[in-house]
Amino acid sequence: MRAIPADSIYEQNLAKNSANYVPLAPVSFLKRAADVYPDHPAVIHGEKRYSYRELQARARRLASALEAKGVVPGDTISIMSPNTPAMIEAHYAVPAIGAVLNPLNIRLDAQTIAFILGHAESKVLLTDREFSPVIKQALAMLSKKPWVVDIDDLATSGERLGEVEYERLLESGDPEKPLDLPADEWQAIILSYTSGTTGDPKGVVYHHRGVYLNALTNVAAWAMDKHPVYLWTLPIFHSLGWCFPWTIPIMGGTQICLRKVDARVIYGLIAKYGVTHLSGAPIVLNTLVNAKDDEVTSFPQRVKVTTAASPPPASVIEKIEARGFDVLHLYGLTEVFGPMTICEWQYAWNELPAARRAELKARQGVAYPSVEEVHVVDPATMIDVPHDGKTMGEVVERSNTIMRGYLKNPRATQEAFAGGYFHSGDLAVRHPDGYIELKDRSKDIIISGGENISTIEVESVLYKHPAILEAAVVARPDEKWGETPCAFVTLRDGASASAEELIVFCRQHLAAFKTPKTVVFCQLPKTSTGKVQKFILRQKAKEIR
Amino acid sequence: MRAIPADSIYEQNLAKNSANYVPLAPVSFLKRAADVYPDHPAVIHGEKRYSYRELQARARRLASALEAKGVVPGDTISIMSPNTPAMIEAHYAVPAIGAVLNPLNIRLDAQTIAFILGHAESKVLLTDREFSPVIKQALAMLSKKPWVVDIDDLATSGERLGEVEYERLLESGDPEKPLDLPADEWQAIILSYTSGTTGDPKGVVYHHRGVYLNALTNVAAWAMDKHPVYLWTLPIFHSLGWCFPWTIPIMGGTQICLRKVDARVIYGLIAKYGVTHLSGAPIVLNTLVNAKDDEVTSFPQRVKVTTAASPPPASVIEKIEARGFDVLHLYGLTEVFGPMTICEWQYAWNELPAARRAELKARQGVAYPSVEEVHVVDPATMIDVPHDGKTMGEVVERSNTIMRGYLKNPRATQEAFAGGYFHSGDLAVRHPDGYIELKDRSKDIIISGGENISTIEVESVLYKHPAILEAAVVARPDEKWGETPCAFVTLRDGASASAEELIVFCRQHLAAFKTPKTVVFCQLPKTSTGKVQKFILRQKAKEIR
Fold first, then answer.
1. Contact B9 A408 (CB under 8 A)
2. What share of chain A is helix, strand, coil (3-state, %, to 5)?
3. What does the pLDDT average to over B73-101?
4. Angle CA(A175)–CA(A176)–CA(A181) in degrees, nearest 5?
5. What CATH number does residue B471 fall under?
6. Would you state the pLDDT for residue A483?
């Protein structure tokens, strides 16, 4: 870091002023889109269609109505909603009055929701009527309740819990009230709770600066053309929807809402609206790949699909590309605004066979363009591991797109930032070409006879077996070895395979100590974002006799 | 502006740290490109070709060699060079040691150069040998001389003025020395002098933050694909080359150097390297349009051309698009990092006839995506003029892409930022669709019998006359009317037209008071960036009897 001294000629009478220094805030993108493309469709949801002029007016109405209700800067506004116009509008309106939006994971149980609403000190809760039962339970557990607004969206029939319905609230607002910038770009914009596998959820606090930068960087990372059409197959509540609610207006694009991931509906929308981009966990890719013929509507365009959360099996990448999708593979975490790395494509790879191309694409890759540094380090010394594709280390990062920390949790915040880097808790190797390949979550790694086993490596072998739809591997306690690999698998419809057969298959591709000793056939438990819940499987593995 | 209070839960234990707050600095883009695309061609110049690995190594060598010579943060390093690898390398290396790069306009006279080197307190001067004569003169005028490095580029044979040649200097540097970030993103990065038409040139001080943001925004504004090939028809010394030295690495692209604008060479390079983007003043467009058949090499791709500096006549836009170029029209100033507005294309315009489309495209447009606010205001009240396409006002702006101010010139800085906005000094109208159309520089406007006359309006009529290659209109003092329009025109090769004929032609398209009363046939005097020097023409107009 080089500092110009205060007595330099460059530091005299050249201070920031209101003309040349504007807080970076993503609401600016909506304001510009409403100025430049007022009549372009901004949001489409079923029969509803809002232009940028209308979207801005709705966001202004919501902002002013919340202020009229007494919301002030620093207040928390929670929202329980799938990917609807109200959800998108809240992402602009709430930050524009200095308040902090807290999107809730719609799969959560009442107790966790009650914990979050209490911990976040929510002043207002906007809630889609589909979730009235669980929200009602949660509210009953709270001594200090937020003011509740019901959202009537398409075909929902849940009980009304609040004083006012969302559209009525909007009617009371002022469509001319300007959307405001934060006084400081470091101010909190969103509060998102991680679905912790142990202990209470932690509240990740995001800042305006990071959202602005990540939203703009997404355009470069995807090499996005003007007027993209973005389909919401990713839950917006998950890691800021990777900032796409704010990226799309930069390019004057259209957001297509979607309440549920359903192959037939997705293919239909892609064809109807000429969708150009979508994103999601590998489960979304799986849904698209495994769609039955009568669920698929053909479409002429290529659709760019960004996937993250866990490495997509090479076989899935190969199949989905044949269906008209180009896959971009990212890796990241809730704490880093979504993407931390991107598997940038190299020209030279075009020459390789399809299977090898898919393998390369399944690696997590290099720093996302907004990220300053990504390292794979020995956590004890913070020294980079050799780029040998073998030595495992922890992925750590420096970037403007990292959370401020965890709300009311200084200890967890300090741990996350130990040594001046953000610690991902993920284990990876670095290949000679600099690309990172994830090996495991630190807590997922299996240690058998003193050897580390990457569960991801074992899973990728299982995925190559034609009978297997999904697979997850965890540690099973073992008296002799300490732990051994235990595989949980779901077979394809109509396919069959025995445990012995799968173990023999694995042994052909893996060292003996890495080969699963146990195979269990079942449906895999998942989070709302499609991540396999390994803590449940670990518990099951312990209980196997 | 909404401020979250200091006692809010969102302001406890959530301060910036070295992991989540990184100064925005464009050198980060080169570092990432060298990591991700080490073997991709970064810079091509004649037979020379540097990969990103090599470009970074050369920048590191330059940075470390300058430090070894005693350069410290806040020092000024001047450079006199056309668009060469050395020029690009300096844009990365100098900021990476906290020093400030001062690119000189290569068309300047010795006296002005001496003024700038003295005013900027230049410690080092890198100078291409083509300019040895004028630099030698300039150095002779200075009591305190910078340390001089000669740049041997292609086919230059000027006298050596310094102790060391650029490539030798690089050899003395360390190719492994990391490029550094500034301690603060607000630090000065570039110092660029405006070619003031009166008085001494003013030194525009740019900051790292603005360059980073503008470079990244260029990707979105051009909807740039991966691996663009950018041809340097714009002088890099002019308004930071609109930040393209830093934009291209974001997308892993290639910069093609060019010492001089020459139609045959440009067409040759476009065909040879598959150029995708270039930019320049309308004079560059004119060069491409008016190229003789034997100067044109055909090419298969469409080339995106960004033009600024003065509105391109609709007739030129129409012709250049027929030659394989898609024109993007920007408007801006040195003080605002290049672009302030962009003529964003609207779908609905596709339906219009070609001539009308070109007219719409010749308007200056709407806020560039990095710009927070652009207004056309009554300068006395700072109130927006009506969006009626008629009422003229001054263009003012708020943006992170505005200079810190003028070096050692607090009075000019204060004037530029009067009322909390940057004042462009340009006069425009705002159309009902929100698009801005420039009418004139405030100092260029003609006031005849109390009526304002836009010289641009009169010029655009002259450009429609088939015999006219170039035209410029200025005020001529008049006893009766105060001022009257006086046209200076250059005819096309082989074309002829009388003054009377041109006046009659203008009268058919313009009100009588706007029609030129005088027509002078001549070559137009221009600045190095292709802008017509109206102050010379105004002087000539005064002297007409």
1. yes
2. 35, 25, 40
3. 98
4. 105
5. 3.30.300.30
6. 86
- Angle among Cα B118, B84, B205 to the nearest 5 degrees reads 40
A5 touching B (Cβ < 8 Å): yes
Residue A53 touches chain B, beta carbons under 8 Å: no
Asked if the structure places residue B67 within a domain, the reply is: yes
> What pLDDT does residue B197 have?
47
B430 phi and psi angles, rounded to 5 deg: -120, 125
Residue B472 has what DSSP assignment? Answer: E
Tokens of B173: 């540097």
Angle made by CA atoms B295, B297, B302, in degrees to the nearest 5: 125
Query: In this model, does residue B309 exceed pLDDT 70?
Result: no
> Does residue B459 lie in a domain region?
yes
Choice among A244-253, B238-247, B457-466 with the minimum mean pLDDT: B457-466
Q: How far is CA B498 from CA A105, B60, B495, in A?
A: 77, 60, 11
- B146: amino acid identity, one letter: P
> Tell me: the pLDDT tens digits for A141-191?
999 999 999 999 986 689 999 989 999 999 999 999 999 999 999 999 999
**Contacts (Cβ under 8 Å, ≥6 apart) of A79:** A86, A87, A90, A101, A102, A103, A104, A125, A126, A127, A237
Question: For B229-271, what is each residue's pLDDT tens digit?
Answer: 999 999 999 889 999 999 999 999 999 999 999 999 999 999 9
Q: How is residue A509 written in tokens?
A: 């591709």
Residue B193 in domain: yes
- The Cα-based distances of B4 to A180, A428, B14 in angstroms read 13, 39, 13
Q: What is the CATH number of the domain that holds B139?
A: 3.40.50.12780
Look at B3 and A180 and tell me if their CB atoms are within 8 Å. Answer: no
- The residues, ordered by sequence, that sit 6+ positions from B372 with a Cβ below 8 Å of its Cβ are A22, A28, B398, B399, B400
Burial class of residue B129, CB neighbours in 10 A (0-12, 13-18, 19+):
buried
CA B506/CA A544 separation, integer angstroms = 94
Q: Is B221 on the interface with A (CB under 8 A)?
A: no
Nearest to B35 among A18, A400, A434 (CB): A434
Are the Cβ atoms of B22 and A398 closer than 8 angstroms? Answer: yes
Chain mean position to CA A208: 17
Question: ipTM value of the model?
Answer: 0.89
Domain that holds residue A530: 444-543
* Residues A13, B415 contacting (CB under 8 angstroms): no
For residue A327, being part of any structural domain is answered with no
- Strands of the A254-256 sheet, one edge to the other: A48-51, A41-45, A254-256, A229-231, A277-280, A303-307, A325-333, A338-342, A366-367
The two three-digit tokens of residue B342, written as one number: 């962009």
Chain B CB within 8 Å of residue A372 CB: yes
State pTM to two decimals: 0.89
Q: How many domains does chain A have?
A: 1
- pLDDT tens-digit series, residues A424-439: 988 899 999 999 998 8
Tokens read off for A409: 């949790």
